[in-house]
Design a protein that fits this description.
The complex is a heterodimer.
Chain A: E1 4-13, E2 16-26, E3 31-35, H1 42-50, E4 57-62, E5 65-66, E6 77-80, H2 92-102, H3 107-121, H4 136-149, E7 154-158, H5 166-182, E8 186-191, H6 194-200, E9 203-208, E10 211-216, H7 218-223, H8 228-233, E11 240-244, E12 249-251, E13 254-257, E14 260-263, E15 274-278, E16 284-285, E17 291-294, E18 296-302, E19 306-313, E20 316-323, E21 331-334, E22 339-342, E23 348-349
Parallel strand pairs in A: 3-8, 3-9, 6-7, 7-8
Antiparallel strand pairs in A: 1-2, 1-4, 4-5, 9-10, 11-15, 12-13, 13-14, 15-22, 16-21, 17-21, 18-19, 19-20, 22-23
Helix pairs in contact in A: 2-3, 2-4, 3-4
Chain B: H1 2-30, H2 40-57, H3 63-82, H4 87-103, H5 109-112, H6 117-149, H7 153-158, H8 171-174, H9 176-183, H10 187-218, H11 224-230, H12 239-253, H13 259-284, H14 287-295, H15 300-311, H16 313-329, H17 332-337, H18 346-355, H19 361-382
Helix pairs in contact in B: 1-2, 1-4, 1-6, 2-3, 3-4, 6-19, 9-19, 10-13, 10-16, 13-16, 14-15, 16-19, 18-19
The chains are: A alpha+beta, B mainly alpha.
Chain lengths: ~350, ~400
């Protein structure tokens, strides 16, 4: 029930500029995921919202109230840390009720809130235990429960699942998604894991070196990447990028890609270098496609439900994702609508 | 390889046995036994044979019976064939042998085949040897102190090197020195003074050290690195350098012969190390815990009292223990600043007594025991608080 506005926020540690001119509007009840490679400033942004990190320049507004100078405790945010940060000398109940106790709320209210949170997260039977007697997943639940009892306007998650094993991570991801449906508030979630970003987010912010590369819904980010970085960051294995030289740009709307002359509509190309992006899942084997090329198969990884085929075509190394029941064949096909064109600077050329 | 290892094993274990038996014989001599000959050759041969026999028999008979058998053979050979000695001496030898055979029970021909087994044997026995040697070196003076305090003036004059305790005498006579030091030498008062000074130092030191250590560990302020590195600089000044200027200052301020004066000096000397120890521990507490506490609306003092202190109880109690021991045992400053017997601390009182030629030695030793025992008991009691790992479970899995 809050909107957050970043207005040209800057942050540097020493001479190291972490975030430059960051502006963004987070809408009410939105689940926003900040994603990017490590060191891109995503955690710093989160900590600036919480007030654990000073804002060097620019402003952050919550519900049109400037919070730059506001004490962390007055910002009505709750943070879930990567390392859980549970108080080890208190049991689960005390951990979850600690913030309310500091505020000197009445006992019944505290009890009610803790019980509600415990019920949402299904940790009612753990309330008497100490953090060291809990498993990783249970600790993370308690940490989220502690955030819920604070009744914040904004939930901040700082890579909350990266200490869990893969199975538990998938389970908790679903839990967090459900939680957001249950308690409609703003959630800002930092992760470096693209799967978490794609599955959880209402909107994704892709960051690199403290700059926004793209903001959009998961579909937009996947289907309509604005540049090579975004294209390669989302999707696994990452998008194949082919360098196209001037002589392969045949006319202003025809490019020679992998031995095929591919014609695009509505395109005005100059005679210069371009980058072509095509996702591994869009390279097809044994399927009817408009274009095909012959290649050399280097390696096949069988993942059970699908196969990753590493292929070599001239000087290009490509990977293709195909269903595991399909035969391997060196004849690879692709369609024109799955091709992304990027200019020399990596910016998308819209088709 | 096996033959070589077997011989080395037997030799090392034999020397270890000789060491044990020799210590026992020395102690027995001090108890008044008249042992003319240590019979090292015979012990050597016996020990060597026992080691070999142990390897040959290995686990054909149960270890318990084997130990008893070997011990009995040794006791009979050593005690009854060579020289007649009282039964308690032989029981001691028996126990030593029992211990010895149990120590070597884990070796057998199988693991002696391995190439590195000589090293393992060597270090095993070196460890044992080290433990026994150093505990002997440390415990023996304490034993002397204890024994002397239980003697009469007469017994001390007759044979000063007799280290036996005569338990036959009346309990009142046995503890006479302790009654005397409390009655005629006012040791009760000294203990009280020492306790007040030591506890006072602990409290004041912790009062200053905890916030200071927290500030150095966590807060960013001007001169922080300089401060944290310069904390230990005070230790570059030997106490004796400080004592004389302090003496003049304290004389003028009227702080000599006062507990307050001692508290000031003791706090000043223990504070640096206390801060240093605590800040190291505070740094090891995950920072996220405090950040979580900030979001829980705690103030800085709230964080210190509700998060940092409960989590640092092991560190705080070891610092308290350290400070207490320093203050309890401190001698130089109390020697310089206290010259009125009414305000003496224990260590100062003992020095005062020993300076007096008429004070019998057994009283001095009784006094020394009184100084030592509290520290010993406190250490044993506090030891359980020194367990680490209180932060377990707060972060990560």
């Amino acid at each position: 029930m809050a909107n957050i506005k970043f207005n040209r926020v800057n942050k540097s540690f020493g001479s190291n500029k972490i975030i430059t001119d960051f502006s963004l509007l987070v809408e009410e009840d939105e689940f926003l995921v900040l994603v990017g490679p490590s060191g891109c400033g995503k955690s710093t942004l989160l900590r600036m919202i919480a007030g654990l990190e000073k804002i060097d320049d620019g402003e952050i507004y919550i519900n049109d109230q400037k919070i730059n100078e506001l004490h962390p405790s007055k910002r009505q945010t709750a943070m879930v840390f990567q390392s859980y940060a549970l108080y080890p000398h208190m049991n689960v109940y005390e951990n979850m009720s600690f913030g309310l106790k500091i505020e000197k709320r009445p006992k019944e209210e505290i009890n009610l809130k803790v019980m509600q949170a415990a019920k949402i997260l299904k940790i009612e039977e753990l309330l008497k235990r100490k953090p060291k007697e809990l498993s990783g997943g249970q600790r993370q639940r308690v940490a989220i429960g502690r955030a819920i009892t604070r009744n914040p306007k904004i939930f901040l998650f700082d890579e909350p699942l990266s200490n869990l094993d893969a199975a538990l991570r998938a389970e908790m991801r679903v839990e967090i998604s459900k939680l957001h449906n249950q308690i409609k508030t703003n959630m800002i979630y930092v992760t470096h894991d693209q799967v978490e970003a794609m599955t959880l987010a209402d909107r994704i912010v892709i960051l690199n070196h403290g700059n926004i590369e793209q903001v959009g819904t998961p579909e937009e980010i996947y289907n309509d990447p604005e540049n090579i970085f975004v294209g390669q960051f989302i999707g696994s294995p990452k998008m194949n990028i082919l360098e196209i030289n001037e002589e392969n740009v045949i006319s202003e709307n025809i490019i020679k890609i992998l031995d095929n002359d591919v014609q695009f509509d509505k395109l005005k190309l100059k005679k210069s270098k371009y980058f072509i992006g095509i996702r591994p899942e869009h390279l097809k084997v044994n399927q009817k496609t408009s274009f095909t090329f012959n290649s050399e198969i280097e390696l096949v990884e069988n993942l059970g439900n699908e196969k990753i085929v590493y292929i070599k075509k001239d000087e290009h190394n490509l990977s293709a994702k195909i269903p595991s029941n399909s035969e391997i064949n060196s004849l690879i096909g692709f369609d024109v609508e799955n091709i992304f064109i990027f200019d020399q600077d990596g910016k998308r050329v819209k088709t | 390889m096996r033959t070589k290892n077997t011989i080395i094993f037997s030799l090392i274990s034999t020397f270890f046995l000789i060491f044990l038996i020799s210590i026992w014989k020395i102690l027995a001599t001090l108890q008044g036994l008249n042992i003319q000959n240590f019979n090292l050759q015979i012990i050597f041969i016996l020990g060597f044979l026992i080691s070999l026999a142990h390897l040959t028999i290995s686990d054909k008979i149960r270890n318990f019976y084997k130990s008893i058998l070997f011990s009995l053979i040794f006791v009979i050979c050593d005690g009854y064939l060579i020289q007649q000695l009282p039964i308690w001496y032989n029981i001691g030898v028996f126990l030593i042998l029992y211990f010895f055979v149990n120590q070597i029970k884990k070796y057998n021909f199988d693991n002696l085949k391995e190439e590195h087994s000589t090293q393992v044997i060597f270090f095993d026995f070196l460890t044992l040897f080290g433990i026994l040697f150093f505990s002997f070196v440390i415990l023996f003076p304490f034993y002397m102190m204890l024994v002397t305090s239980f003697k009469t003036q007469m017994a001390l004059l007759v044979n000063p090197l007799d280290f036996s305790i005569n338990f036959g005498q009346d309990m009142k006579d046995l503890f006479k020195s302790y009654f005397v030091i409390f009655k005629s030498y006012k040791f009760g008062k000294y203990i009280l003074t020492s306790t007040i000074v030591s506890l006072g130092t602990v409290i004041i030191t912790l009062l200053f050290a905890i916030p200071a250590a927290y500030a150095i560990a966590r807060l960013n302020f001007f001169g922080r690195t300089f401060l944290s590195t310069s904390i230990l600089i005070i230790y570059m000044f030997p106490a004796i350098v400080l004592v004389i200027p302090l003496y003049t200052v304290f004389s003028q301020l009227g702080l000599r012969n006062s507990i307050e004066g001692l508290l000031i000096v003791y706090t000043a000397t223990t504070l640096p190390v206390a801060i240093y120890m605590l800040q190291g521990y505070f740094k090891s507490i995950p920072k996220e815990l405090e950040e979580a506490a900030i979001l829980d609306k705690l103030s800085w003092f709230g964080i210190i009292f509700k998060i940092i202190i409960p989590l640092s109880i092991p560190a705080i109690s070891s610092v308290a223990l350290y400070v207490f021991m320093i203050a309890w045992n401190e001698f130089l400053f109390s020697l310089m600043f206290l010259d009125n017997p009414n305000s003496f601390t224990l260590s100062r009182a003992i020095q005062y007594l020993s300076g007096d030629a008429e004070t019998p030695r057994q009283y001095l030793m009784a006094g020394s025991v009184v100084v030592t025992l509290p520290v010993l008991f406190i250490f044993v009691y506090f030891e359980k608080y020194l367990v680490s790992g209180l932060t377990a479970g707060s972060v990560k899995g």
